[in-house]
């Protein structure tokens, strides 16, 4: 897969079929759209391409309204590569880009990237002030001569799958439902940093994650997780919160990795959230905390290492 960061400067010679959208989370609705793009491109001996934002548009329009995201661009790139996309372009949303009219935006897409087809979601909006809609796209497909495919919404139990809904589910701690909408486990990744070593003192050593602050976090509590480190996966229990038993004031993401005793400070890990176990609570003593952690560990040991949709 070729990755560009281009704001209409590169001209492509090979014909393309282009998926347009933000694609935060790459949920099951997004993947329907991505797979359709790949299918059309291959059928027409063209390249499949995703045109998406390097930064969220609200970082320019109204920074205070920027939502916490489901995934970063690194994770998005990896998933799109695995899906089979040929070309990925991250456009920088800036003041100049913000002012492009809907018509000019599509003209640029067709002209610069030799697009023979565009693939969009049912509620896709584009151009200055989001004035462009599906009706305008249909008119432009006729006047500019490109194929247009509009992908219908995907529903799970009569509920439309959307990035905003998934963000809400994660922030409410409903990881099981969020994962169902994603068709994969939500994960956080980052370096392991030093903590207070409290877990070690009570027989449950933990790793502390230095997480990306722009990403949505699951609601405070304890989760069954799977930790990926150096190509291997391990069962774990992860606490998100403030450690009320010891009156910690800083939010932390601490994970006890079961049957694991390596020192991995400054190493990179991924933590996949499978299930919520319980709320975070204040215990009367470290001894009662230790007993609860033993119960959490016993629960985790009985769970699947490989992800399955509940």
Overview of the molecule:
There is one protein chain. With 310 residues, this protein is α/β, with parallel strands linked by helices. It folds into two domains: 12-154, Rossmann fold; 185-302, Riboflavin kinase-like (Elongation Factor Tu (Ef-tu), domain 3, Beta Barrel), CATH 2.40.30. It is 31% helix and 27% strand. The protein has helices spanning 28-43, 58-61, 73-83, 95-98, 102-113, 134-144, 163-171, 175-182, 198-201, 286-301; strands at 2-4, 16-20, 47-53, 87-91, 115-121, 147-151, 155-156, 159-160, 186-193, 207-210, 221-229, 232-241, 252-257, 268-278. The longest helix is centred in the first third of the chain and has 16 residues, at 28-43. The protein is elongated and about 75 Å long.
| Rg (CA only) | 22 Å
Main sheet? 6 strands, parallel
Summed up, the helix count is: 10
**For this structure, what is the CATH homologous superfamily of the largest domain?**
HUPs
* CATH classification, class level of the largest domain: Alpha Beta
Beta-strand percent range: 25-35%
Instruction: List low-pLDDT spans.
Output: none
Query: What best-fitting shape do the alpha-carbon axes yield?
Result: elongated
Estimate nothing, just give the exact number of structural domains.
Answer: 2
Distance between the termini: 33 Å
Describe this structure in a few short sentences.
With 310 residues, this protein is an alpha/beta fold.
Task: Write out key terms for the chains shown.
alpha/beta; Rossmann fold; 2 domains; six-stranded parallel beta sheet; 14 strands; 31% helix; 27% strand
């Amino acid at each position: 897969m070729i990755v560009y960061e281009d704001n209409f400067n590169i001209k492509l010679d090979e014909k393309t079929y282009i998926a347009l959208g933000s694609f935060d989370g790459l949920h099951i609705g997004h993947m329907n759209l991505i797979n359709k793009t790949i299918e059309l491109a291959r059928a027409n001996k063209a390249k499949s391409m995703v045109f998406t934002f390097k930064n969220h548009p609200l970082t320019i329009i109204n920074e205070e309204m920027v939502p916490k995201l489901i995934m970063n661009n690194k994770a998005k790139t990896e998933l799109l590569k695995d899906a089979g996309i040929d070309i990925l372009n991250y456009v920088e949303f800036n003041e100049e880009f913000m002012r492009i009219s809907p018509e000019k935006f599509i003209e640029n897409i067709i002209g610069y990237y030799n697009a023979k087809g565009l693939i969009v979601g049912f509620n896709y909006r584009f151009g200055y002030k989001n004035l462009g809609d599906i009706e305008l796209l249909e008119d432009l497909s006729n006047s500019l001569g490109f194929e247009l495919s509009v992908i219908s919404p995907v529903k799970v139990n009569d509920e439309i799958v959307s990035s905003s809904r998934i963000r809400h589910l994660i922030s409410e701690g409903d990881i099981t439902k969020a994962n169902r909408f994603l068709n994969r486990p939500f994960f956080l990744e980052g370096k392991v940093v030093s903590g207070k070593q409290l877990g070690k003192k009570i027989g449950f050593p933990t790793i502390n994650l230095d997480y990306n602050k722009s990403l949505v976090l699951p609601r405070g509590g304890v989760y069954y997780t799977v930790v990926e480190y150096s190509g291997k996966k391990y069962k774990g229990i992860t606490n998100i919160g403030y450690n009320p038993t010891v009156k910690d004031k800083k939010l932390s993401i601490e994970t006890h990795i079961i049957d694991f005793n390596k020192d991995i400070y400054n190493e990179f890990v991924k933590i996949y959230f499978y299930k919520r176990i319980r709320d975070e609570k204040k215990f009367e003593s470290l001894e009662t905390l230790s007993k609860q952690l033993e119960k959490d560990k016993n629960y985790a040991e009985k769970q699947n290492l490989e992800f399955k949709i509940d």
